[in-house]
Amino acid sequence: MILNMQRTILLLVLFSVLTLCACQPSPRSKEKKTAENETPVVVVVNYPLQFIVESLVGPEYEVLNPVPPDANPETWLPDDVMIQTIQQADLIVTNGANFADWVKKLSLPRSKVLRTSLSLKDALITVPDFEVHSHGTGGAHSHAGTVAFFWLDPALMARQAEAIAQRLIEIDPQQKESITANLKKLKESLKSLGKKLDQLQAEFPGLHWFSERPVYQYLAQRCDWTMHHLHWKPGVVPTEHDWDKLKTIQQEHKISFLVWEHQPKENRVKDLAEHGIASVVLDPLTGKPAQGDYVSEMQRQLEQLEQFLKQHQLESVKSKK
Q1: Which of 35, 175, 211, 218 is the most exposed place for a label (fewest CB within 10 A)?
Q2: What pLDDT, in 10s, does the model give residues 163-213?
Q3: Exposed/middle/buried for 151, CB within 10 Å: 0-12, 13-18, 19+?
Q4: Which of 205, 238, 221 is nearest to 147 (CA)?
Q5: Residue 298 CA: distances (Å) to CA of 160, 232, 237, 307
C-alpha cells in the first residue's frame, strides 16, 4: 500500500515537471522571438541612399546615416563604437565606386552589404584623369576612376531604389506589398526631376561647363551636356598653370560658367569673373538639406539653375551686340 502511494506520488511529480518543461520556451525559440521583436537597422553611406531607404520603409526599420551633418560623407571615418554599430546592422547600403572612405577601410560582413553600383554596371562613367596628384618627387600624374554621384540622374537613382527594395524584401518578405507600393511612389516623384531635366536640355542644348572635380557627369550625360573638371582642390589657390589650362579649355569649347558643389569664396568668384567665367551652385546633396527632402531640394536647385542659365544667356547676347 505504502509502496503504491510512493509510486503514485513519484509519477505525479514527474508529470508536473514534464508539464512545466513543456510550457517553458526553449532558449532558441526565445532568441527567435527576441530577434523578431527587434527593429531591423539599415546603415547608409550618404543622404541620397538614406532618402531612398526612408521612402521605402516605415517605422518598422531604423535607418542610420552615421555621418555627422557637418562632416563630408566621402572622407568621414567612424569611431570604434560606431564601427560596432555598423557591423551589427541588418543591412549596410553602400554607394560603390569608392564613395565613402570608411567602406574601403572597415571589415564589413559581406552578406550584409549591398553595393548599389552593381545594379548600374552598364551606366557607369569612368573618367581617365579622375584625380591628379603627385607622390614625392615623382611628378604629377592621374588615376582613372568611376564617378560616384549616380543619383544626379533620376533614372539611375530609381535603379538604385529598385536594388535596395529587392534586398529589403529578401530580409522581410512580409513587407513586400508595402515596399513595392512605396517604390512605385518614389519612382513617380523622381519622374518630376526627369521632366525638369528634359526641359533644361531642350532650352539649353549642347552646353559645356566647368566643375572643380568629377561630380556632375551623370546629370550632364542625362541632358547631353559636357562637363570639364579642373581638379581644383577646395581651399587651394589655383596656380598660373591652372588658369592657363582653364583659358585653353574655355576658348576651345566656349565655356562661360562653373558649377560649384557649395558656395565658393567671394575672391574665387571674382577671379573667375575676371576670366569671363560666371559661378553657380548646385549642391549634389550628399548630406541632408536644411529644408525639404531630396526631390524638393533638387527641384528647387534645377529651377535656380534654369534662371541662372536664362540670365547668363541674356547677358551673353547683350555683350555680343
Answers
A1: 35
A2: 999 999 999 999 999 999 999 999 999 999 999 999 999 999 999 999 999
A3: buried
A4: 221
A5: 17, 24, 30, 14
Query: Is residue 321 within 8 Å of residue 314, measured between CB atoms?
Result: no
pLDDT of residue 317: 53
Alpha-carbon span 24 to 4, nearest angstrom: 31
With a CB cutoff of 8 Å and minimum separation 6, the contacts of 303 are 196
DSSP string, 8-62: HHHHHHHHHHHHHHHHSPPHHHHHHHHHHHSPPEEEESSHHHHHHHHHH--TTSE
Paired with 208 in beta bridges are 226
Query: Distance between CA 203 and CA 197 in Å, rounded?
Result: 10
Helix or strand (DSSP H, E) at 318: helix 294-320
The length of the chain, given as a count of residues: 321
Backbone phi and psi for residue 113, each to the nearest 5 degrees, phi listed first: -95, 130
> 115: closest CA among 132, 131, 130, 97?
97
Determine the Cα–Cα distance for residues 300 and 298; give it in Å rounded to an integer. 5
Q: What is the CA radius of gyration of the chain?
A: 28
Quote the CA–CA distance of 57 and 94 in Å, as a whole number: 17
Q: What is the pLDDT of residue 138?
A: 42
Domain 40-320 has CATH 3.40.1190.10: no
What's residue 63's pLDDT?
97
pLDDT of residue 137: 42
Q: 159: helix, coil or strand? A: helix
Q: What residues of the chain score a pLDDT lower than 50?
A: 1-3, 10-11, 13-14, 17-35, 132-143
Could you tell me if 272 and 169 are in contact, meaning their C-beta atoms sit under 8 angstroms apart?
no
The amino acid at residue 125 is I
* Nearest-angstrom CA–CA distance, 94 and 102: 10
